[in-house]
Design brief:
- The chain is of the alpha+beta class and about 700 residues long.
- The chain folds into four domains: about 45 residues; about 180 residues, Biosynthetic peptidoglycan transglycosylase-like (Penicillin binding protein transpeptidase fold, Orthogonal Bundle), CATH 1.10.3810; about 270 residues, DD-peptidase/beta-lactamase superfamily (Beta-lactamase), CATH 3.40.710; about 70 residues, no CATH class.
- The strands form five sheets. The chain has a five-stranded mixed beta sheet, with helices on one face. A five-stranded antiparallel beta sheet has the order 7-6-14-13-12, with helices on both faces.
- The radius of gyration is 39 Å and the shape is elongated.
- The relative contact order is 0.08.
- InterPro entries: Beta-lactam/transpept-like, Glyco_trans_51, Glycosyltr_51/Transpeptidase, Lysozyme-like_dom_sf, PBP_transglycosylase, PCN-bd_Tpept.
- One of its GO terms (biological process) is cell wall organization.
C-alpha cells in the first residue's frame, strides 16, 4: 500500500504537468489564432488587381493599341469566361474548391503520403486560393517565411472574397505561356478569340497549360498538350460536369491555333497613341506605371477611317525623295475631338510629334483671328484699305517694319477686307493689326484657345510666333462651330480594370465668340475658294479649286520655311503643316503645294459619304450682293457681284458707281431708302415737287 501511493502521487504529478503544459500551449495556440485573426482583420481585404495591359479604343470600339511590357494581361469578369474553362480549371486544379476554406487538408495529407512513398515531391496540394495568393503577392523563394505569408494571404482572400471572386482573379492572373497572363490573353493568343467564346475542346486544352507552360503548350509539344487535354476531359466526365460523349467529341475536335496576339502596340496611329499617353498624364493625372500596367480601358476620339485616309493621302502626295515633314490633325468642330493625327512621315524613323510638339510659324493662317477682332471693332467685309508697299515707323525703341506681299505684288489702291483675306494681302493685315492695337490680336488668340507664347509685334499679324498644329486646328474648329469654346481632345473616357469610370471628358462648351460675327468671318474665309474675289492676284485657293465639290472655309499660310493649310466644312476641320525639321527654306514649287493638296484630298475623301452642307447664316446677319472691287452694293452694270454677309445694320448702303453706263444717273433706290427719304421731305413736296 505504501508502494502504490508514491506511484499514484507521481502519476498525478505527471498528469497535472501534462494538463498544465497542454493548457499552456492551448492558450498560446488560442492567442496565436486570435492574434492572427486580429492581424487579418487589420490588414483587411487584399486588392485583387494585378499588372495588366491597358487597352486603347477608337471611337467605334475597335482596339487600336495597348501598353506593351512584353506581357499580355487583360481582366475579364467571370461571366465573360466560357463555363467550360471555369469547370475544366476547377476540375483539374482544385475539385473541392467550393467546399474548403482555402486549404484542402485531405489533399494535403494525400500529397504528403505520396511524397513519402516516392521519397520525393511528386504531387502538389495547393488549392486555387493558395495559387492565386502566390501569383498575386509573393516572391518565388522557397522559404518558410514565404509559405507562412502565402497561408496568411490565402486566409485573407477566403475571409474577404466570395469563391467566384477568387476564381475570377485566379483565371485572370495565371500564366499560360508565351507572355500570356490570364484567360483572355491566352484565348486571344492560342485561338484568336475571346475567352467567352471558347469551345469545350479549346477550354480543356487551355486549362491544362498552367501546370507547366513549357511542357503542355501545344506549340511546345502538341502530343503532351493533347494528353493533358484528355486527362482533363476525363476528369470533368468523372465529376459529371460533362457527359462521356461530350468528352469524346471535344477530344476529336480539330483545334486551330494562331500563336500571336491580334492586338499590337500602336500599329494604328502611333503618333495619336503617344498623344493619348501624354493626355493621360497631363489631363487625367495618371502616372506612367498606372498607364502601362493598370489594366485601363481608354476610350479615344480616333476615327480609324479618317486616320487611314490621312496616312494614305500623305504617303501618296509627298514624294519619297523629299525630306519634307508633315504635321496633320483632323477634328470634329462640335466638340474638339481629334479624329486623325499624323506627327511625321515615318514613326519608326522619328517619333517626334510635329502636330502636337513642334512650334512652327503659322504664317497667314493667323489672319482669320485678326479679322474676327476687326469685325468685332466695327470693321466689315467691305471696309477698304490701301494695298501698297508700306514702311511702318515706330519710336526709337522699335525699328521700322516693311511687310511684303507674295512676289511683292500689290493692288496699289484700295481693296476690301474680304478681298484682302482671300488674296492674303500682308500690308492690309499689318495695318489692321496696328489700327486695333498691338495687344488685341494676342488677347483674341487666347479667346480662340491658343496657349503658345505670342510676341506682341507688328509681324504677329503675319504669324511669326510659333504655334502647334493642334492649336490652330482647334481655333478654326471654334469658327466652324459658331464660336463655342473647345479644346483638342483625345480621350472621352477612362475606366479601371473593374470597369469603374475614373475620368470622363466634360461635354459642355461655353459660347465665347459672337455668333453673327463668327458667321461673317466664316463667309469671308470661303473667299479663298471664290474666283469672284480675284484682283491684283488670284485667290489663294486657286490651285485646288478643281478638286472641290462642297463648300469650305479656310486659310493657307506660308513663311520661308513653313507651309500651312487649315480649313473646314460644317462637319469637319483639318489642318496641315509641311516643312523641314531643320527650318531650311522651302524653295521647290512642288514642296510649297503639299499642304493644300494633302488638305483637299483628305477633306474630299473623309466627307465622301457625308451630305453636302452649306454654312447656315445666323439670325443677326444679312446678305447683300456687293462689287468685290470696292465692297459697295452691286448694280446690274457691275461685271461681278458677290453675295456677302454683314452683321445686321453694318451692310453697305452706297451703290457702286464705277461701272454705270451713265455715271451721273443713280440706280433705283431700295424701297426702304425711298420711304426714309419721303419721311424727311416736307408734305408739300409730294404735290409741288418744284
Amino acid at each position: 500500500m505504501e508502494v502504490v501511493r508514491p506511484r499514484l502521487k507521481r502519476t498525478i504529478k505527471y498528469v497535472r504537468a501534462f494538463l498544465f503544459i497542454g493548457g499552456f500551449f492551448t492558450i498560446l495556440f488560442m492567442l496565436f489564432l486570435a492574434g492572427m485573426l486580429i492581424y487579418i482583420k487589420i490588414q483587411g481585404p487584399p486588392p485583387l488587381s494585378v499588372q495588366q495591359s491597358s487597352l486603347m479604343y477608337a471611337n467605334d470600339g475597335t482596339i487600336i493599341g495597348e501598353s506593351n511590357n512584353g506581357q499580355k494581361r487583360y481582366w475579364v469578369d467571370l461571366d465573360e469566361i466560357s463555363p467550360y474553362l471555369t469547370e475544366a480549371t476547377v476540375a483539374i486544379e482544385d475539385r473541392n474548391f467550393y467546399e474548403h476554406h482555402g486549404f484542402d487538408y485531405k489533399r494535403i495529407a494525400g500529397a504528403l503520403l505520396a511524397d513519402v512513398k516516392a521519397m520525393a515531391k511528386v504531387e502538389g496540394a495547393s488549392t486555387i486560393s493558395q495559387q492565386y495568393a502566390k501569383n498575386l503577392y509573393l516572391t518565388r523563394d522557397k522559404t518558410w517565411n514565404r509559405k507562412i505569408s502565402e497561408a496568411l494571404y490565402t486566409i485573407r482572400l477566403e475571409w474577404n472574397y466570395s469563391k467566384n471572386q477568387i476564381l475570377e482573379g485566379y483565371l485572370n492572373t495565371i500564366y499560360y505561356g508565351h507572355g500570356a497572363y490570364g484567360v483572355e490573353a491566352a484565348s486571344r493568343y492560342y485561338f484568336n478569340k475571346e475567352a467567352k467564346d471558347l469551345s469545350l475542346g479549346e477550354a480543356a486544352m487551355l486549362a491544362g497549360i498552367p501546370k507547366g507552360p513549357s511542357i503542355y503548350s501545344p506549340f511546345v509539344s502538341y502530343e503532351r498538350a493533347k494528353e493533358r487535354q484528355k486527362t482533363i476531359l476525363s476528369e470533368m466526365a468523372s465529376q459529371h460536369l460533362i457527359s462521356k460523349k461530350q468528352a469524346q467529341t471535344a477530344m476529336s475536335e480539330k483545334l486551330v491555333f494562331t500563336g500571336k496576339f491580334p492586338i499590337q502596340h500602336a500599329e494604328i496611329a502611333p503618333y495619336f497613341y503617344d498623344a493619348v499617353k501624354q493626355e493621360l498624364k497631363n489631363k487625367v493625372g495618371l502616372d506612367e506605371r498606372t498607364i502601362e500596367f493598370g489594366g485601363l480601358r481608354i476610350y479615344t476620339t480616333l476615327d480609324i477611317k479618317q486616320q487611314k485616309i490621312a496616312e494614305e493621302v500623305v504617303k501618296e502626295t509627298v514624294s519619297d525623295h523629299s525630306d519634307i515633314q508633315v504635321g496633320f490633325a483632323a477634328m470634329n468642330p462640335k466638340n474638339g475631338y481629334v479624329t486623325a493625327l499624323i506627327g511625321g512621315r515615318d514613326y519608326v524613323k522619328s517619333s517626334y510629334n510635329r502636330a502636337v510638339q513642334a512650334l512652327r510659324q503659322p504664317g497667314s493662317t493667323m489672319k482669320p483671328i485678326l479679322y474676327y477682332a476687326a469685325l468685332e471693332k466695327g470693321f466689315t467685309p467691305s471696309t477698304t484699305m490701301r494695298s501698297e508697299m508700306t514702311t511702318f515707323h515706330f519710336d526709337e525703341k522699335r525699328p521700322d517694319y516693311t511687310p511684303h506681299n507674295f512676289n511683292n505684288n500689290y493692288a496699289n489702291g484700295e481693296i476690301t477686307l474680304a478681298q484682302a483675306l482671300a488674296l492674303s494681302d500682308n500690308v492690309v493685315a499689318v495695318k489692321t493689326h496696328l489700327f486695333l492695337g498691338i495687344d488685341t490680336l494676342v488677347n483674341e488668340a487666347r479667346q480662340f484657345g491658343l496657349t503658345s507664347k505670342l510676341a506682341r509685334v507688328p509681324s504677329l499679324a503675319l504669324g511669326t510666333s510659333g504655334v502647334h498644329v493642334t492649336e490652330m486646328v482647334n481655333a478654326y474648329s471654334m469658327i466652324a462651330n459658331g464660336g463655342k469654346k473647345i479644346e483638342p481632345t483625345f480621350i472621352t473616357k477612362v475606366e479601371d480594370y473593374e470597369g469603374n469610370v475614373i475620368y470622363e471628358n466634360d461635354s459642355s462648351h461655353d459660347q465665347v465668340l459672337d455668333k453673327d460675327t463668327d458667321f461673317v468671318l466664316t463667309h469671308m474665309m470661303e473667299g479663298m475658294f471664290d474666283p469672284k474675289l480675284n484682283g491684283y492676284a488670284s485667290v489663294t485657293g486657286t490651285t485646288i479649286l478643281n478638286k472641290i465639290t462642297r463648300p469650305y472655309a479656310g486659310k493657307s499660310g506660308t513663311t520661308d520655311s513653313d507651309s500651312w493649310m487649315i480649313g473646314f466644312a460644317p462637319q469637319l476641320t483639318a489642318g496641315v503643316w509641311t516643312g523641314y525639321d531643320n527650318g531650311q527654306p522651302i524653295t521647290l514649287t512642288a514642296d510649297k503645294l503639299y499642304a493644300k493638296n494633302i488638305w483637299i484630298r483628305f477633306m474630299e475623301s473623309a466627307l465622301k459619304d457625308e451630305p453636302i452642307k452649306a454654312f447656315k447664316p445666323t439670325k443677326g446677319v444679312v446678305g447683300v450682293k456687293v462689287d468685290p472691287e470696292n465692297g459697295k452694293l452691286a448694280t446690274e452694270d457691275c461685271p461681278r457681284a458677290r453675295l456677302t454677309y454683314f452683321k445686321e445694320g453694318k451692310e453697305p448702303t452706297e451703290y457702286c458707281q464705277l461701272h454705270l453706263s451713265n455715271p451721273i444717273e443713280k440706280p433705283d433706290e431700295p424701297q426702304a431708302e425711298k420711304k426714309a427719304q419721303e419721311k424727311k421731305e416736307p408734305w408739300y413736296k409730294k404735290i409741288f415737287p418744284w
